[in-house]
Amino acid sequence: MTSNDPQPSRIIGGGVSTGENEQPTVVTQMLGIANTAPVREETLRARFLSFDPLFDAASQLVANQLVLRGRTAKPDSPPELRRMDEDMLLTGLFSLVQGGLGKELPLLVQISSDFLFSDLLLQLNDPKLIWVVALDNEQHLARALALQDAGLVLCPRLNRGNPVVLDSAPAWHYLACHADEKPIRAPARLVVEGVRHSKVQAQWPDDAWFKGGFFSGDTAGETPPAALTREQALQLDLLAIALRGSTDTLAHFFRLNPDMAPRLLAIANSPAGGLSRPAESVAHALIMLGPQRAGRVAALLALAGSQPSDASRQFTVAALTRALFMGKITRLGGPAENAATAFETGLLSIAPHALGVPIETLVRKLGLAPSSARALSAEPTPEGRILKLAQACEQNDSDALAAYAQQLKIPLHQISVAYLDALIAASALDAALH
């Protein structure tokens, strides 16, 4: 079958052109920790560095926070284990600062009060960094004020039971609060954590920054559900970052998680990347792809994983097929808002199966637009109708195809050709996933 469409489907940067083998090793004895359950290598491997988003009152992304996910130390864990977590966080931060934070959004980093007295704090400083810290006494307060005078940006954590921060509130540019606390009046910008309901968010000033399940979808806390494996949580984080469209954050993510970089480079250098010449590194690839195409290539990696299985390869190719097809149908006169929105809906329609998460969690975690959320939830929307058309093509359901063709007022032969074009184009991705 040949196409009479002057613009047949083709992969351009991942989408339509729209303008554990080793035995675990006990390591706690090396740290001199007594009377505690041993920390094993598998536990350490379950940790990874990523970013939590912060939003303003209008749900616009305004900052990120560097976080350590996975099997991290609990608040009542021995101090050596908590220090290990902080060391891992700061090691990752050092890599980011060395590479330059560029034009990225502000980056929040939580540190212990002990770290206030470390010389490394001044070495790690960058104008984009905001240090979140609890000040428990006058000594901490004096040191924090001195660091602020030296050019660091600090965000003390408000504690109603300790007046140190409350009494010094006018001195700070940022103050960290919990959503369960009573809002305070202060000249500082408030960073409100733990927001899980819109009515809670509405109690705080409009210029505050917010973090919590109401925005991120992590309704059980600030970390992904425990049922997720490290790989699943990593993929979900990458997908969220890819859809927010920040090339700088993507570059930082791969610097923190270099084991995912080879697969991204393979996808970027495949027909799915659409590059005019091969990229030599992830940073090079992201620059050559540009923001939209880089996000789409990263989203494909998020669906496939760094070590794709047969199932994840099939999921990813199917997702790209749907995305290309839905974008093409929109350009042929389909009712979707635009080809880019249709592409995103097609890509994400496979994500609940590929990542093993409920669609509600996916919608919240990714901060999807209402149109995409309704379409993925099987509500009757323009994008949803095109998604059902894609599924009818997959099942070769001739009756459904004829009905949708009539509804969308697109000739059946054009629908068939568009799907064939998308299927052929997406199949080229498979080689990059092996």
Topology:
Blueprint: H1 28-31, H2 41-45, E1 48-55, E2 61-69, H3 79-99, E3 107-110, H4 120-124, E4 129-133, H5 138-149, E5 154-156, H6 163-167, E6 174-178, E7 189-193, H7 198-201, E8 209-211, H8 213-216, H9 230-243, H10 247-256, H11 261-268, H12 282-304, H13 310-331, H14 339-348, H15 351-355, H16 359-366, H17 370-376, H18 382-395, H19 398-408, H20 412-427
Parallel strand pairs: 2-3, 3-4, 4-5, 6-7, 7-8
Antiparallel strand pairs: 1-2
Helix pairs in contact: 9-12, 10-12, 11-12, 12-13, 13-14, 13-18, 13-20, 14-17, 14-18, 17-18, 18-19
Structural shape: elongated
Q: What is the N-to-C succession of helices and strands? A: HHEEHEHEHEHEEHEHHHHHHHHHHHHH
Q: SS-based structural class?
A: alpha/beta
Helix content: 40-55%
Number of strands: 8
Low-confidence stretches: 1-7, 11-36, 219-225
Mean pLDDT over the residues: 83
| Biggest β-sheet strands, sense, barrel | 5 strands, mixed
C-alpha-based Rg, rounded: 24 Å
Q: Strand fraction band?
A: 5-15%
Main sheet: which strands, in order across? 1-2-3-4-5
Q: How many DSSP H or I helices? A: 20
**N-C termini distance:** 29 Å
Could you explain the architecture of this structure?
This protein has 434 residues and is of the alpha/beta class. Helix content is 48%, strand content 10%. It is built from 20 helices and 8 strands. Strand 1 and strand 2 form a beta hairpin.
